[in-house]
Amino acid sequence: MELHASEIIVFLILFILVTALGFAAARWHKADLGLLHEWGLAGRRFGSLISWFLIGGDLYTAYTFVAVPALVFGAGAFGFFAVPYTIVVYPFAFLVLPRLWAVAKKHDFITASDFVRGRFESHGLALAVAITGILATMPYIALQLVGMQAVFQTLGLTSASPLGQDLPLIIAFVILAIYTYTSGLRAPAAVAIVKDTLIYITIIVALVVIPARLGGFGHIFQLAALHKKAVILPAKLFPAYSTLALGSAFALLFYPHVVTGVLSAKSGEVVRKNTIFLPLYSLLLGFMALLGYEALAAGVNVGKNLNLAVPLLFAKMFPHWFTGFALAAIVIGALVPAAIMSIAAANLFTRNIYKEYLHKECTPQQEARMAKNVSLVVKLGALLFVVAIPLTFSIYFQLLGGIWILQTVPIIVGGLYTRWFHRTALLISWLVGMVVGTWMAVSLHFTTSIFALHLGSAIVLGYAGIWALVVNLVLAVVLTLIFRAAGVSNGKDATAAADYAG
Q1: Which residue has the higher pLDDT, 455 or 16?
Q2: How confident is the model over 54-63, as a mean pLDDT?
Q3: Closest-CA residue to 262 (of 274, 280, 247, 250)
Q4: pLDDT, tens digit, for every residue of 416-427?
Q5: C-alpha distances in Å from residue 179, one per residue of 25, 43, 49, 167, 174
Q6: Which of 132, 137, 407 is nearest to 247 (CA)?
Q7: CA neighbours within 13 Å on the CB side: how many for 210?
Q8: What is the C-alpha radius of gyration for the chain, rounded to an integer number of angstroms?
Q9: In CA terms, which of 23, 68, 464, 475 is 20 to 30 Å from 483?
């Protein structure tokens, strides 16, 4: 790609700004960052406004900003499944997340696995949730890097050599790793304010400028149809579209980074308010999805990398200085969720693997130090994932993330509302759901998460995660009835009904 000085200068100024902000965040709500609840949850101090930026930055990642329009660019209307799923998720979140916050606050739970262990007195079930969360998070972090790679390529900062191709990415992630290590969750919270401001400005400008330059939305949709990209979803894809939206909504809330963002709020009321106002991001996402059609209409040539659709569209439609601004918004939009994801994975490993099985007597300071070190390892692992594995395969692996996380929903949501499910039944059904979902993805060669279910002569296309979840739930109910009838112990509940209100 051709280098433009004004693009690079604007980009670097904004990147340096957020880097400085990330380091300065260590002194925000100053506390002892040698304690895990301060480093990993910011002391549970965030109010409504900061939580709105942080959780929004958590849910709407740079890969979302790049991948959703890229999917529309490549597959047409099916790519809009992300819009209804981010609408469906908030009523569910309104009911579930304040309960999780309340019981976590009462018992000093830092992860979802902490809650599961306390609710069911089951180390095995807690370990299952922790392993699932870490496995699903790694490729998710890696895909933040995929979005950043697309930006660096558009800016012309990469070269043909292997080192030249990955060097900008490595530098950006080293900086991210250092300020996350020093500032903890305060760093992405502070940067999220800048990130969301940049994203909103970029999309508002794009919404006005790009359609005007391309002859209006009517002309854009006509050109998309000429490219044989469906503007109206075909009826045969309705089940696939709806199950993917529904399954993605249920899975989204229980990714470790989302749980971490929620538990950092200072009250359950803050969480409830956020579920009311966060749908503003869904409106933004709808406008972003339209960028896929606009890239088609603009004649953007992405080669084999669909993720270049939005960066190249911005480079083609905007003056150079504003292209630098817009591309910085995408990269900064990757840094925020990547930081939170690495912190969340570190919290899970430290609390539910290291402290439970490797060093039961560790001090609070040792616990926090281990979490900081693990956050570095997680980032390094994600970086190696992108550098060492071909781009196509890294995207395919991410499909498993949603399928896997969805299998923890019966454990966490079931636990938040009832003790009826038997802990052993939940563990077995989780394992079966994981195996079934993974088998479906493997049988599809990781090229899609839509699995054709054969019901007699009928073939129903649907999200593999939903099919696996149905198996999971049915088995959990049947096995619970069996274990209860056999009088198998269901452990002691460390929580009380009153703990879930607040």
Answers
A1: 16
A2: 78
A3: 274
A4: 999 999 999 999
A5: 9, 18, 22, 19, 9
A6: 407
A7: 31
A8: 22
A9: 464
Of residues 456, 466, 414, 412, the one with CA closest to residue 436 = 466
* Phi-psi label, residue 462: left if phi above 0, alpha if psi -120 to 50, beta otherwise: beta
Residue 223 φ/ψ, nearest 5 degrees? -70, -35
Query: 């995207």: which residue's tokens?
Result: 395
Q: d(Cα 465, Cα 478) in Å, to the nearest integer? A: 20
For residues 7 and 326, what is the distance between their CA atoms, to the nearest angstrom? 9
Distance set, CA 181 to CA 5, 39, 213, 423, 449 (Å): 32, 9, 44, 36, 35
Query: How far is Cα 277 from Cα 258, in angstroms, rounded to an integer?
Result: 16
Q: How far is CA 331 from CA 12, 61, 97, 171, 262, in A?
A: 11, 10, 29, 13, 23
> What's the whole-number average pLDDT of the chain?
88
Residue 184 has pLDDT above 80, yes or no: yes
Cα–Cα distances in angstroms (integers) from residue 332 to residues 11, 196, 371, in the given order? 10, 9, 23
Structure tokens that stand for 52 in this block: 């709105």
pTM listed for this prediction: 0.91
Task: For residue 204, give both structure tokens.
Answer: 């508002």
User: Are 133 and 340 a contacting pair, CB within 8 Å?
Assistant: no
Give per-residue pLDDT as tens, 82-138.
Answer: 888 888 889 999 999 999 999 999 999 999 999 999 999 999 999 999 999 998 988
What is the DSSP track for 162-217? HHHHHHHHHHHHHHHHHHHHHHTTHHHHHHHHHHHHHHHHHHHHHHHHHHHHTT-H
Which structure tokens are listed for 209?
């400028």
Rounded Cα–Cα distance for residues 293 and 297 (Å): 6
Residue 443 has pLDDT above 60, yes or no: yes
What's the CA gap between 393 and 173, in Å, rounded? 21
Q: Cβ neighbours of residue 222 under 8 Å, at least 6 residues apart?
A: none
Helices and strands: H and E segment counts in the chain: 21, 2
